[in-house]
Structure formats: structure tokens, C-alpha cells
Design brief:
By secondary structure, this protein is α/β, with parallel strands linked by helices. The chain contains twelve helices and eleven strands. It folds into four domains: 53 residues, no CATH class; 74 residues, no CATH class; 125 residues, Rossmann fold, CATH 3.40.50; 61 residues, Beta Barrel (OB fold (Dihydrolipoamide Acetyltransferase, E2P)), CATH 2.40.50. Helices cover 50% and strands 18% of the residues. A hairpin with a 5-residue loop joins β7 and β8. α1 runs antiparallel to α2, α3 runs antiparallel to α4 and α8 packs across α9.
Amino acid sequence: MPSLWVIRIFFLFLCTGAGYAVSQSRPEIIHGGMYGLMIGFGLGGLLIGIDHMLKGFSLRAFSAATFGLLLGTLVATLIDQNQVFVYGADDETRWVIRLALFLAFGYLGMVLAMRGNKEDFSLIIPYVRFKSQNKPENHIVLDTSVIIDGRIAELIERRFVEGIIVVPKFVLHELQFIADASDPVRRERGRRGLELLERIRRDPRVEVKIHELDFADEKQVDAKLVKLARALDAKLFTNDYNLTKVAELQSVPCLSLTDLAAALKPQVLPGDVLTLHVVREGRDRGQGVSYLADGTMVVINGAHAMVGQKVQVQVLSLHQTGAGVIVFSDLKLAAAA
């Protein structure tokens, strides 16, 4: 982010100037203005380097680590105050034991706090849920499959889906990798996904956030998505069947656009009259074949000679197969007007 680098460069100049100022006001500490400039510049560069290494370390993780460090320090202090190690130990040995206690329990407290979630804190501090006092934000996390699919943009623009659209940084990287693929089909899919994100971002009614949080302990993108959705208390939108099931097992709200499209398919019932375009002859003698708008196959009895024409048909029955539903119908009007 360019604005962040502006702050970093400004901070580096401040550190360099501060080093020079110390060398002038306290020459007994730093001898010479050049040394002051070098020390200030080095300290600022070191802090910026640490900041760059911690770019995936979120404020939530920092808060959890601080809370865990405090708990670990408290436990170590209680053990130390019991003076278990006073007897039979000299001052130097006791100092080493105290140092080991604080380091060990501080580390364990930080690790356990960062591995936990907000529900764990409610066990330590009852009745505290760490919820915002303002109106809760509705976060929607998008995965790669639903971005490439493209239908999510229509739902957002028509206000069927409302909330803050969250695109994880690792999903954006995956899209960029697909867009740079050597296979032209994959490359086109990746570019279409990036164009769709830009289309959503340009909508003034929609707030889009590129989330920086990553989970270094997880290698699979699906596991990272589930963890992020849980951390943000968000809904996960995907077209991945396996990801949907994993999210459901972990009690993370998840919506599959494939399931939504199946639920919104128009219901055709026996006796309905439809106007269709016959595209080819059927498998059996005398049959013609057409398709509904959602791709459902319609077999028309007596329409073998009507290929390329519009006809009116009356639905007889529906047959469920592993690939979907097949509609059987009779020709009602030989040719459309």
C-alpha cells in the first residue's frame, strides 16, 4: 500500500533526525553527528524491517498475544511468590529459575491465546463476548470459485446480497496466479475474476476490503477461508462443494451459489404449456429435443420434423436422473406463429 510506505519513509526520516539530535544534545552518548545519523537510520530501518516481517500479524493476533503474555506472566509471578525455589538455591540460581519461569509461561500464554478464539475468552472472563456496541457489521467472505463464477456480482448489484465484501489477500494471490497461467482457459478465468472484483469495487454502494490476515500454520486455502470467516464472524460464499461441507462441519455460515441456483430453478409441472425452440431430433423415433432457460432437457414427442422451429408443447411428466431432471412433453401446436 503506497500510503503505508509514505508513513514508513517519514518515520525513517524522523528516526534519522532524532539520532542526529541526540548526538548534538548528548555527545557523551553518541560521539559525532554522522554516527547519530547512522544510528537513527539503522534503528528506523530495523523497526521497518520488523514491521514488514509482521505484515500478516493482525491487530487481533497482537491483542491475543498480549493477553496471553499477561496471563503467562501472572502465573509465573504466582509461582515465584510461593518461594518454592528459595530453599537450597543461591541468588544466581534463583535468578536463572525466575527467568526460565517467566520465559516459559509467557511463551505458552501467547501461543495458547493466539490458537484460541473469542469463545475461549468468554470462559476466562464470563459474560464478555467482545462484541461491538455499534450495529454489527455483516461481513461476506468470497472464495476464488465464486469470484470466477461471476454471478455474485449480479446478486450484489441487485442488492440481494448486502454487507462488507471481504476478499482475503491469499485469494487475491490465487486469482493472480491463475490469471498468469500458461493455459489460455485458466488465464481467461483468472482475468475474468480480477475484472469482476474491479467491477464490484467501483460500485459506490458496496464496501470492498482486501483482508491482510493470513494463517501461516495452514497450507490449504480452504482451511484459511474457514478460519478467516470464523474470526470475522462472517458468511462464506463459495461454489466449492467440499469447502461447503467443511464449513458446515465447523459451524461456519456458508452459502453455495450452485445450491442457490438449483433452489431458484423454475418449477415445471405436468399440464403446463411451454413455447420452445426444437434444437435437434431425439434418441427415439419421432422425438425432438429442446432445452429450458436453465439447461433442463425437454423431450417432445412428435417434433422430429420441427427442428429449428418454435413449437408449443404440453408437459406430460418429469423424470429425475443423476444428471438432473428430464421433462417429457407432447407437441401441442405444430408450428409457432
